[in-house]
Design brief:
about 625 residues, alpha/beta, ABC transporter transmembrane region fold, Rossmann fold, 3 domains, 6-stranded mixed beta sheet, elongated, ABC_transporter-like_ATP-bd, ATP-binding, ABC-type oligopeptide transporter activity
Length: about 625
């Protein structure tokens, strides 16, 4: 196995992420212990080697002073040869190995390991998690947390352990020169640590605030860009600009606070770093003047003092970055680690639909409120039945569909498919058995081929084209070309399918559902964006697709539902009428009023109708 493969960057995690920092870091990094252990040992060895360089330099100076100029190479050949091998072979090998482990083994793999685990966990959240936050902010938190945690690991291994080994080695080395010089270094270390203890918690706190403000800027900007057509159509560029500037101003304020603290920290850092060479070299000169140490000892002490002084700035800035990264990790944890609210039962089975019978048993859901949604729905849908669903906006139609797909768990009652409660099967298997076409068609910024194949990832090109032809999408797909010159089924559709018209997006969504060929099919205003001519041309294809399937079709245009086996009418979250098109007209109830009031095929609103979400 190559060292670059010591960490599996896409390994799964055990259980949900903890909500406390150190357990969260262990959860994120599980599986990388061996690689991190090797990298840590090499980093510590590199720190020791760094101090040895000063010690060897001192020995060379003593050797030079202890020999006549014309005899140094013969008298001191052993010292000089060892020094040569140390500086030209051992030191480059150790530092090269250290760099290789950090840059090749640890950093790229840890980043992907953490990001893949966070992303996988986020994908398991219920839709309510995404409803309550900016999409851009969630994505920002995933990237921010993975990057900050990776940087923290690299900083601890590459800098903190290296520095600790260097300092420990320096104390031991100076102890061999004169114990009093070593004690001077220990006193300086205590002062340095007290300064770090004062500043770092403050840096960590301000870093969390800055990361949160940055994420709000990202969320605001992404929200605006995602809805740019709406912004343009309503001429609200100034409004969106003000909203973004407000978020940016908050980010600026937190950045200024962080900057002020950083400037203060750097001032005291440079001051305490300047004390070190004065303290150590001054002490060494004093003891040399007393004849207690050699000139080589002064050289070694000076080299150590200068290297540690330089390292002080490097280590301090690294620690500042480390604490800032820890703050960003904690900020990301608040967003990304809430427990999943919609879980499969521990003994959940895979759903296999044999017939497609659907039963609603006293179903109720109000989004956690006392009203809205649906209530007391009782309905049996026979295998292969074609059921139309009608109701004014807010009547509960979409809530019914969301509950059937188990995007939410019912607060009351249950839904059965072929006699099995949908809460007793896995969510993935449930949704694999349901095809869906909605009026808000979701497209990925991928090729037309990939978007249609999303319905069945193992489908061949021929399968995809056949589904597109049935959905009347094949011809316009062949004419497409994106900005990179890709054409036809290879052309990308733009974010959320922005390059397509509403009707084109709907036809690709239909092709996706046709390709999926699930035993249960939901059509939620599936042809609302199509003109009458195109709708008529694909009606035959839709009828073929619906053969042998249980179909639930929601439409405001009642003419599209007149051939359904039964139609249910919903009002304020309840089922108020059930029957065939002819039966409901004969009842002269709400459905008949909708039918009579339609103009151009759309349902009007009754006065006083309450919207149910």
């Amino acid at each position: 196995m190559k060292p670059s493969d010591w960490i599996d960057p896409f390994a799964g995690a055990k259980g949900p992420p903890p909500r406390r920092l150190w357990p969260f870091m262990r959860w994120s990094l599980a599986g990388s212990e061996m690689a991190l252990g090797v990298a840590s040992v090499v980093s510590i060895f590199a720190g020791v080697v760094e101090v040895m360089a000063a010690l060897i330099l001192g020995k060379v100076v003593d050797a030079a002073l202890g020999s006549a100029p014309d005899q140094i190479f013969s008298d001191q050949s052993g010292v000089l040869l060892f020094s040569l091998l140390f500086f030209l072979v051992l030191r480059p090998l150790i530092f090269g190995a250290n760099s290789y482990l950090q840059s090749i083994v640890v950093a790229p793999n840890v980043f992907n390991l953490v990001l893949s685990r966070l992303h996988r966990y986020t994908l398991g959240q219920a839709v309510t998690f995404f409803d309550d936050d900016f999409a851009g902010r969630i994505a920002q938190k995933e990237m921010q947390t993975a990057r900050a945690l990776t940087d923290s690991v690299v900083e601890i291994v590459q800098t903190v352990l290296f520095a600790l080994a260097s300092v420990a080695g320096a104390v031991l080395m100076l102890g061999t020169v004169d114990i009093r010089i070593a004690l001077g270094l220990v006193v300086w270390i205590v002062g340095y640590l007290l300064m770090i203890r004062y500043f770092m918690p403050r840096i960590r706190s301000l870093s969390k605030s800055r990361a949160s403000a940055r994420a709000m800027v990202t969320g605001q900007v992404v929200d605006t860009v995602t809805n740019i057509k709406t912004v343009k159509l309503f001429a609200h560029a100034d409004f969106e600009d003000r909203a973004a500037l407000g978020a940016m101003d908050s980010f600026r304020d937190t950045s200024l606070d962080f900057g002020r603290l950083s400037v203060t920290f750097r001032f005291w850092l440079m001051t305490i770093a300047g004390v070190l060479p004065v303290l150590l070299v001054g002490g060494a000169l004093w003891y040399w003047s007393l004849g207690l140490i050699t000139a080589g000892d002064i050289a070694a002490t000076g080299a150590v003092a200068l290297r540690l002084a330089q390292m002080t700035g490097w280590v301090s800035f690294t620690l500042m970055g480390l604490y800032a990264n820890v703050g960003e990790v904690e900020d990301g944890m608040r967003t990304l680690t809430p427990a999943h609210t919609l879980l499969d039962a521990p003994d959940a089975t895979e759903l296999t639909v044999q017939q497609g019978a659907i039963t609603l048993d006293d179903l109720g859901f109000a989004y956690g409120r006392r009203s809205g949604g649906v209530e007391h729905l009782n309905l049996s849908i026979a295998p292969g039945e074609k059921l139309g669903i009608v109701g004014a906006s807010g009547a509960g139609k979409s809530t019914f569909v969301a509950l059937l797909l188990r995007l939410y768990d019912a607060e009351q009652g249950r839904i059965l498919i072929d006699g099995t409660d949908i809460r007793d099967v896995t969510q993935e298997s449930l949704r694999r058995n349901i095809g869906l076409v909605t009026q808000e068609t979701a497209m990925f910024n991928r090729s037309a081929l990939d978007n249609i194949r999303y319905g069945r990832p193992d489908a061949t090109q021929a399968d995809v084209e056949r589904a597109a032809q049935q959905a009347e999408a094949h011809e316009f797909i062949l004419k497409m070309q994106d900005h990179k010159g890709r054409t036809g089924y290879d052309a990308h559709l733009g974010e959320r399918g922005v390059k397509l018209s509403g009707g084109q997006r709907q036809r690709i969504a239909l092709a996706r559902a046709i390709l999926k060929d699930a035993p249960i099919l939901i059509l939620d205003e599936a042809t609302s964006a199509l003109d009458s001519e195109v709708e008529a041309s694909i009606q035959t294809a839709l009828e073929r697709v619906m053969e042998g399937k249980t179909v639930l079709a929601i439409a405001h245009r009642l003419s599209t539902l007149s051939s359904m086996d039964r139609i249910v009418v919903m009002d304020q979250g309840r089922l108020v009428e059930i029957g065939s098109h002819a039966d409901l007209l004969a009842k002269d109830g709400l459905y008949a009023r909708y039918w009579n009031r339609q103009s151009g095929g759309f349902i009007g609103y009754d006065d006083g109708t309450e919207a149910a979400q």
